[in-house]
Amino acid sequence: xxxxxxxxxxxxxxxxxxxxxxxxxxxxxxxxxxxxxxxxxxxxxxxxxxxxxxxxxxxxxxxxxxxxxxxxxxxxxxxxxxxxxxxxxxxxxxxxxxxxxxxxxxxxxxxxxxxxxxxxxxxxxxxxxxxxxxxxxxxxxxxxxxxxxxxxxxxxxxxxxxxxxxxxxxxxxxxxxxxxxxxxxxxxxxxxxxxxxxxxxxxxxxxxxxxxxxxxxxxxxxxxxxxxxxxxxxxxxxxxxxxxxxxxxxxxxxxxxxxxxxxxxxxxxxxxxxxxxxxxxxxxxxxxxxxxxxxxxxxxxxxxxxxxxxxxxxxxxxxxx
Length: 321
Hints:
This protein is of the alpha/beta class. It has helices at 10-17, 19-26, 28-33, 44-50, 91-106, 156-159, 165-178, 183-199, 204-217, 222-239, 246-280, 285-292, 297-309, 313-317; strands at 41-42, 61-68, 76-84, 111-119, 130-135, 138-143, 146-148. It contains 14 helices and seven strands. A hairpin with a 7-residue loop joins strand 2 and strand 3. Helix 1 packs across helix 2, helix 1 (10-17) packs antiparallel against helix 9 and helix 7 (165-178) packs antiparallel against helix 8.
């Protein structure tokens, strides 16, 4: 997938927009237990405060969502979702660490914490679902459900007929992997997927949203991207459905670029703060706020290097623009 950072990925955006559909597609039993008549609440900022460890592995996205169950009594469930993009020998450990940190922060007698994982790596046999250790009579066994995207390879024809947005997204993900060395075939699959958005009767807003995600995942070389644009323009003229105009396409591309840039800035700010916290145990909130307000990537990179060798916070503050 065309992902340059952990948090600004098409997967994260897709879950933000289509969270009920995500649960229905991957975890239908849980979907049936959730009371969707009540508003669910995204807690991404709170999650990042709980799990700030950049060293705990690379993922495509992580989410924390608060939902209510259909049971008669008041029951709140915090759903922790990890989208893992590559093999990671420490993945089970990270799932456990994140789970108990969320548990420690949010647990009340009427709450439950559930961790779910989606695996988008290239290893068919890697399906971690458990973290455990024991010594003498002390034992811990933490299990979590996973869904492997490669397992959907045999269902591609069926997926392309489904209307759930995640059927489209998984298809784009798998086609991107299949055509990594064949851009012409990627062009054909991309146009086929986008055409199905129109054929399956999605609304204009959904077509624009899903097109943006497909465009992000199935990236074409410049010359083939132009060919794709022409095919799409011809198709829209034929169907008299001018949804993705050149202006909208330009806006989508700018949005992707801005999302990538913003994600890089966020990671750089987090890295500077993390180094300072490790070195000096803690740092004042106003200094954190100052760092979080910086929007120059080169300045943040320089501050990162200085944070490693600086001898005091006062000396560091003197370097701030």
